[in-house]
Amino acid sequence: MPDRISPDQLGAHLPDSGLCWISACSGESDSFREGLSGLSRPGLTFTSIFVPGLNRPDYLLATGGRVTTFFMVPELAASDRVTFLPLPYREILAWLSANPPDCLMIMVSPPDADGICSLGATTDFAADLWQGAKTLIAHVNPEMPATRGAPGIPFDRFDAVIESTQPLRASDPGTDDIAERIGAHAATIIPNGATLQTGVGRIPEAILRSLSHKRDLAIHSGLIGDSTLLLLDAGALRADKPVTTGVAIGTKPLYDALTRPDFAFRPPSHTHALPTLAAINSLVTVNSAIEVDLSGQVYAEATPKGFISGPGGASDFAAGARGPGGLRIIALPATAARGKISRIVAPQDATGPVSLGRFDTDFVITEHGIADLRGKGRVERKQAMLSVSDPAFRDALRSRSQEKSS
Q: Which residues form a coiled coil (predicted)?
């Protein structure tokens, strides 16, 4: 049986060196943070899926150790002890398979009658990794819902457990008029019967909310938020396997609902696998971006101030949505900085690496309408993109595009 410990005893059970996976997303642990406070572990490298604006993993660097991250967050950006690997999910899984963590520190639900702890709302990569780890340390949290889908972890497989109650990390991106207008546009092209993948943030959530009148939908996504519960309760989702995901990030009503049989939590080896995605008819992907250029290339990882994210699963789902009825949607406001900066840009003015190529996107949606890029050549693509840019920037964009081609 595992040792029951307090946070201040964590150091006695942590290895001195190696790679350590630690819970993040909605399952970021205050007990692990407390236990690592003041602890020196310069030989350890911590890794996880850190979500910008939700997780603050600076405490990991305070141990003297290193951090390998697949998404850049502000707390890690300035350190020379951070390795940033901007990889799509299929490559993250390959990297973790080649570099299996020696230790997992994970938040789980209390054991059920069979002694099994669920990975709950943060199933994700931990479900693919835990069996190969030498050391398993649990934060057993009664607030973590026991979810269906991936097999849980036997309680007696843990080396040590901290038992404490903590609310899951919550996020409500809210809404605004622009997001609602974008959602209304998207609802005109997303059909009944579609299976939906969405990214994070205000606009993907608004798009899902706009579909409450649709029927026979399903969710197959690496991540879900509160809008998924809204669709479920509105009767928009099908009865058979309505929701498949790996992580939930939302508010308490969503977390409380995750024990329902409508939700299946699976690891990325299933949710992001190309054979799985290619077998889904009418897979519709909905992701946001920082910029889209006039050719349809998508930029979602950096601003002029530096990297703020990583590519995530968008390219995996874009590849998977090439099957029958698949649609790939990028949705974003036409401007930033209160209308002072266009987010539709000429290719030479784009910031950061290309996150999705110009043939990985079918539609670009802003509050000004829908650009259908399917089957269009260079000139037609430019015209379609100009039509969804803010009118105040169209002449300048047209001039910049002519400079590029001259």
A: none
